[in-house]
Specification:
Function: Antioxidant protein with alkyl hydroperoxidase activity. Required for the reduction of the AhpC active site cysteine residues and for the regeneration of the AhpC enzyme activity.
InterPro entries: AhpD, AhpD-like, AhpD_core, CMD-like
Structural class: mainly alpha
Catalytic activity: N(6)-[(R)-dihydrolipoyl]-L-lysyl-[lipoyl-carrier protein] + a hydroperoxide = N(6)-[(R)-lipoyl]-L-lysyl-[lipoyl-carrier protein] + an alcohol + H2O
Subunit structure: Homotrimer.
Enzyme class: oxidoreductase
Largest sheet: none
Distance between the termini: 25 Å
Length: 179
Amino acid sequence: MGVAALRAALPEYAKDLRLNLGSVTSQTHLTEQQLWGTVLTAALASRGRTALAELNQEAREHLTDEAHRAARTAAALMAMNNVYYRSLHLLEDEEYDRLRAGLRMNAIANPGVDKVDFELWSLAASAVNGCGRCLQAHEHELRGRGVPRESIQDALRIASVVHAVAVTLEAEELAPAAA
């Protein structure tokens, strides 16, 4: 059921999320692959079981096996990179920037899908994970490849809504609102 099931599962107090989930998955400047790869990457980064199960199922209907794998790769690499680069930023010691990271990131160079798609997905994961340095790097790469701000904004909107849905549904499972 995917998006429809998640919208139905959201409590009344999250009506805005219900509406936003419908709009970000239907009104976009992104291609179908960019849209569903962004949705899947954001769901993976958000770590909400219910949202991930539903959105992974629906994403499979819209993505090739290669694109599905690339979206998962983007989420996995950003889970590592966002912690590392956010930490460097927070340390505010420029000497760390001169040190070799020593982290394998080969998939970024050859993700198996169009580089723009992978960058959009990496941007979405970085937004969910809160890494300003990675957000700047991916936005810069996308703008350098001619991606309009509206498409970048769509990826950020998708990430924010998918994350909010995942958090809300997990909270409802752990501490349901009073009837």
